[in-house]
Amino acid sequence: MAQLLLLNGPNLNLLGLREPHHYGTATLADIEQHLTTLSQRTHHTLTPFQSNSEAELMNEIHAARDRYDFILFNPAAFTHTSVALRDALQGVAIPFIEIHLSNIHGREPFRSHSYFSDIAQGVISGFGPLGYELALHAACDYLERAS
Amino acid sequence: MAQLLLLNGPNLNLLGLREPHHYGTATLADIEQHLTTLSQRTHHTLTPFQSNSEAELMNEIHAARDRYDFILFNPAAFTHTSVALRDALQGVAIPFIEIHLSNIHGREPFRSHSYFSDIAQGVISGFGPLGYELALHAACDYLERAS
Amino acid sequence: MAQLLLLNGPNLNLLGLREPHHYGTATLADIEQHLTTLSQRTHHTLTPFQSNSEAELMNEIHAARDRYDFILFNPAAFTHTSVALRDALQGVAIPFIEIHLSNIHGREPFRSHSYFSDIAQGVISGFGPLGYELALHAACDYLERAS
Amino acid sequence: MAQLLLLNGPNLNLLGLREPHHYGTATLADIEQHLTTLSQRTHHTLTPFQSNSEAELMNEIHAARDRYDFILFNPAAFTHTSVALRDALQGVAIPFIEIHLSNIHGREPFRSHSYFSDIAQGVISGFGPLGYELALHAACDYLERAS
Amino acid sequence: MAQLLLLNGPNLNLLGLREPHHYGTATLADIEQHLTTLSQRTHHTLTPFQSNSEAELMNEIHAARDRYDFILFNPAAFTHTSVALRDALQGVAIPFIEIHLSNIHGREPFRSHSYFSDIAQGVISGFGPLGYELALHAACDYLERAS
Amino acid sequence: MAQLLLLNGPNLNLLGLREPHHYGTATLADIEQHLTTLSQRTHHTLTPFQSNSEAELMNEIHAARDRYDFILFNPAAFTHTSVALRDALQGVAIPFIEIHLSNIHGREPFRSHSYFSDIAQGVISGFGPLGYELALHAACDYLERAS
Amino acid sequence: MAQLLLLNGPNLNLLGLREPHHYGTATLADIEQHLTTLSQRTHHTLTPFQSNSEAELMNEIHAARDRYDFILFNPAAFTHTSVALRDALQGVAIPFIEIHLSNIHGREPFRSHSYFSDIAQGVISGFGPLGYELALHAACDYLERAS
Amino acid sequence: MAQLLLLNGPNLNLLGLREPHHYGTATLADIEQHLTTLSQRTHHTLTPFQSNSEAELMNEIHAARDRYDFILFNPAAFTHTSVALRDALQGVAIPFIEIHLSNIHGREPFRSHSYFSDIAQGVISGFGPLGYELALHAACDYLERAS
Amino acid sequence: MAQLLLLNGPNLNLLGLREPHHYGTATLADIEQHLTTLSQRTHHTLTPFQSNSEAELMNEIHAARDRYDFILFNPAAFTHTSVALRDALQGVAIPFIEIHLSNIHGREPFRSHSYFSDIAQGVISGFGPLGYELALHAACDYLERAS
Amino acid sequence: MAQLLLLNGPNLNLLGLREPHHYGTATLADIEQHLTTLSQRTHHTLTPFQSNSEAELMNEIHAARDRYDFILFNPAAFTHTSVALRDALQGVAIPFIEIHLSNIHGREPFRSHSYFSDIAQGVISGFGPLGYELALHAACDYLERAS
Amino acid sequence: MAQLLLLNGPNLNLLGLREPHHYGTATLADIEQHLTTLSQRTHHTLTPFQSNSEAELMNEIHAARDRYDFILFNPAAFTHTSVALRDALQGVAIPFIEIHLSNIHGREPFRSHSYFSDIAQGVISGFGPLGYELALHAACDYLERAS
Amino acid sequence: MAQLLLLNGPNLNLLGLREPHHYGTATLADIEQHLTTLSQRTHHTLTPFQSNSEAELMNEIHAARDRYDFILFNPAAFTHTSVALRDALQGVAIPFIEIHLSNIHGREPFRSHSYFSDIAQGVISGFGPLGYELALHAACDYLERAS
Fold it and tell me: What is the pairing mode between strands H122-125 and K122-125?
């Protein structure tokens, strides 16, 4: 039985509250609740954490070193700008999956570069909230093979 | 009940035969069998097709117009070079998911551009054969919401 | 009568304290006081907020959703680096004007790109503290036309 | 009396079947029939050939060496990716006109480069099916001047 | 019956006078006369205008707003440098075809970018004086479909 | 009491006549009249000049050397192409403000470079006709501080 | 005694038939015959294969896995465009030499990039048909050292 | 006797805890202790400060204006992304040395650009913890010459 | 005895009137007078022409075809922007020398590209008014060798 | 019977002494001896010359004008930096082959550009010392055909 | 006790003689004397060598293979242009430190790339002559840890 | 009476010996003799120096510090590659003119960048041997104005 950290980056606290026609009406709390429930079925424990602060996300990753086996990470806008979070993830060496709600390749050109993709276990983008489920599925698969 | 096309591009026929330490020992036939079985559980029908020929893949996509509701597509090397397959997919207007076995962001720089990502429903990369399962899962979810 | 948020980004708390020969001797408090007084004459209410923290600015923008009709925003150094603040502004969909004290086109090349200009109502740069007054003027004009 | 080859590249077999509001309802067969009739009036013989296969198009160009005096060529997606077809055309040294149905300059940036334009007699783009007529007109003019 | 403007840009007054082995011996007056005659057969009226002055061309385009239904435009050297003429054409919103006598893709690299192609109805390049005839043909076709 | 020159570049004579839903119904004459009246209240004299000709604008700037204290300048399309007007402004060394009606950062990429911004007192863009008022306000402020 | 595959890409079937003053009068059949004879002297067996089809070349490379010890490969136009053939060669892991008849560095700029050079044993370019002999020589040397 | 600030950026709190074979087993506390002791021998006072928060580092730099004569700064990941810290350092105008533990030129390409190097007194990179000692030595030398 | 045209581009009418400490006090009239006198000594006739208008310069070049044997040309700001003047010079095929008063390589980066240098007989830059004398010297030498 | 110059550039004197596991144990003297012997069999005379000095290599190329018929040249590091040696080879107009021991395309990006490839008879890279033999073979072939 | 080579590149013989206000009055001889004395205190032997010749520096590096344990290297202008010296240092595999007197990041853009930084033990730049002392300190530290 | 150094770079010793149809039959000795004679008429002394060695040219520039007032410099191929010679010229601070025999803008793209133009008094290119005379003329003019 493994410990998973569900890490969400900046502005994701607005989920479900803004542009419901585009992102759906599920709030971040809904998604976190749903993922927590799903992970219980796999006998893993998932702990959600969201912050708009790069430093808080970094501290959470640091603290994850002794507490978590896997990270599900939606870096949101920090995908394109944060070398510090990349360094944090490499520093603690916990495997992680990069998740994007929208298709980052169909938006502004600056969104097509990620500081995380080349060091992630895998990347899932464009599936909305379902992307988290897919990532959880993949994480469980990874943990099984690793154990 | 929907019809799904599992489309695999060039060199994927070598799967499981080459570099087993890297890609695992599952052959393409194994994966196709596994996906077919999985899709039956969801009461959808999945038909696999692989070709090393850009023209044959294009023809299959053209023919898909009247036969399939969704495409699971691993364009492999054509990801980076085929405008013709992009045009074919846009021409038939069938929703599709782009799948990559390996993490294309952690390899040669020319692999980080895709002619498909911006028009796909979503992209899944880096999870090996599991990626197909995740894509099937996402396709079913899409078809349910669309029906 | 509308609510305006005057948002100032990193290092602007140093205004008037550093390089007085270059930026003038007006402190940020002076400017905030002056703008508040000016806005009262137009029967609008202006609330100033400054932070060196990207997360605090983001939180303020999030909170602005239910409280403010317009934002006067000098993103300072975050102009060139913060996708997260861009996303926050798009998320809350409050119209805003981008303000720069100095002429960003006459400085280092990296300052000529802004993550905000293409989604702002307008951009005012190079006029020192007067730029805030011009922006207030333009905001009032916008609010009148919108009401 | 000259022999003309009307060569159409990938996905053009879908013409008239997809996006009729955009490309009109004329099918490729309609266009080929129309061009054949038009060329007869000029006492030239036009033979149509379409393929989704780069190799088949190449073989047709090779075979054209002893059979055709001029090529009307819509390379479609291969415009932007096929050095092999460029080499084939240079190898057989038959004069040709490059035709595009849509305005390639008003679409994705990767469509603004052509591997054929600098070696073509001329380029006609953006006029829909009419572009073929214009090209036939120009080809006849060329053949008259050359004879 | 429609009104067409045949607009020719800088240096085209030299046509037929310079490099006859390359551009042929037809002068601009010859071409204008020929096009005027051809348009009469289609019951349209064509008025020619040439200038070496960007401002005069701009003024002619402005004046065209109430007088012409279509513009045949060879911007010559201004193809690569004039945002002002682009703005003028967008301002009056008259449909136009871009014409080039020589193959601009087979010359200096700076000639491969045009400020007009993406907003033109279509582009014809490389056919010498015949290009004007082809454009007239296409303009008539456009006017018929539009009427 | 100072002399101000209101300089408007190419195509701005079309203002209010084209795309009224986009640019409003105010003509250039309206704007010039409005600015002239406004400047009188500040006891300054404003003289308007518009031309579609780069040479005429240049000559006006040259002539300004002995006649004007400040220039309000909307270079329109010449913003992106005219080194000659840049040199003229540097030659006469009259302070000026660069004005754009629309948000040039939200349009075609070639519009994001200006040959004037780095040598202007300041830049105002995206506010429509109001931008001229803001610039007049800033010019008066400049002249007061300079006197 | 080893098995060698002589693989020739698109348009090379035209060799000796086109531009004899440039490429000489030796046909591909002549070269294949000559190489076969030469390899016999070294007690190796060389099998020639040419195709204009990327898919057929790929299939031949796949089939080579159990049949050949070394590949002499002239990818011709596919040098610059085929990631799929690169992947095929890496997939079967057979050592190969890249050969070009002409000096690719003295031609169009797009010919100076190869998708094969960095994974080839070595590259020989510019020597015409002799290049194949040099490559055979090098292959024999490699096979001797490897045995 | 001068006051020195030893400023360490994001993730450096992990020092000695992660990848000891690479960075050695010295923790940040060890280094801070060692530098403090060394500085006492030079009769200077060194105060260490580390934060993962860009805002806290900025605030520390602002506060340094009245308290410190020199800054030894390892910006870590912020080297490549923080214009705000650059502006802070220029705002307070305290001389500083940029320090990197590892050789940033031998890592990912995005690490070869620094927002600090051109405004630093000097740069020391690649020497591990010893780099801090070298920087302290250089700072003392600077302070002596400046006094 | 030959005819020379001394052609000066935009803003050069300000010479001697602006920035005398930088460009000297010689006006354009002084220079033109001096060159005319100098050319008489060589038994050649030099005619000066200056314009701020690209069209007037173009017309002068066109008219030069039957009147002048050589052109001394300082294109000033048009150096970097005028394809039309380049085309005019190539159209009339009169040999010319490109002259710049200041060192264009020591100024803004956009000044280091010239549309004339590659088709000029030679280029002289950085010598102030003396550059015209050197060019006259070179022109006479050219005319002697050509006669 | 022809005279050949075997020219080796900087650091090649270290051959066989450094990194024997990578470059083999053959010293430059061994290679020079071997090539000299091989050339005698072809009744040609080969003279070896190595220098670490660009000037000495240039002088040797100058002196070659009257003494040698062909040059076998391994420019080593000067491949990527020496315009002077390129000019020397073009100045004396002696045909030459460019040789590289290692595969320059599989190393640092700056090694993929050569100042010699576009003017060489051909290029051979990646075959270690054998490359010299292949080049000698090709040189003899060239000399036979040229005689 | 180790042997150190102090290697100085082109123009450094002018040190102390040119621009004393900028580089100080210490000559290269002074620095070499000072470093020699300092190294003696650490019981190491330091030998200085300066040359303006790339070839002489290369030869000295070659000769260092059997004589020196460490190199302190200021490549000066060769930093940006010499692949040959890079190859020499890699060939002899002696650890070295790269030193620059001035801050190369605050000068012309072409100075920000170094052919040595990624293979050096570390880089020290911007500290004037003190940089050599720091490098000596670091070298001693390296030698101690390595012994 | 001033001392002038005529400095010629690599391969210029071949002048008059190679490609006489292109560069004329004047040897470097002829040119040096001619310039020496010309300078005597102006009561200046000119000393010629040519070398193919960057180091020798650098040493000559160093030695020039106490001996020459002006340098006429044709850097030839070193124009595009030598930062060291640039540094040497800046180190000795002797004014110089950059001369090129051929028009460097009409040749390979890599020849359009010079490491000397932005720090030269002026640049003269494309006039063959006459360029030296023009430079001497300009040097004398400079020396007169400076004295």
Answer: antiparallel
